[in-house]
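INTERNAL AUDIT FORM
Audit reference: QA-55
Scope: verify that the stored structure record matches its stored sequence.
Auditor: D.O.
Record contents follow.
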Amino acid sequence: QVQLVESGGGLVQAGGSLRLSCAASGRSFSRYSVSWFRQAPGKERELVAGASASGNTYYGDSVKGRFTISRDNAKNTVYLQMNSLKPEDTAVYYCNARRVVLGGTLDYWGQGTQVTVSS
């Protein structure tokens, strides 16, 4: 069992920066792929960025070059550094941890943190 708690959201002006954190509890966190998703009102949840257990990273097209995902396995924490924020980045941001095991997939979500970017 893994529990995820996001923090760091808030209100920021366009062009500003925020850093989101996702603290995980539970064992074997380093074996999980971790991702940030976001969901704006009336829109589907979309992938923002991800980091595999081996350290590979990937990003949604809309955030490439502006957002950076990182993980600190010693602290069981994942970060999302968001720079050059735009009003369209406004959404609830969710942390996800996933691991394929024998017999299925372990999939955990945090409760979300609101990010609001004003123009």
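Auditor finding: record pair retrieved intact. The mean pLDDT is 96.
Action required: none
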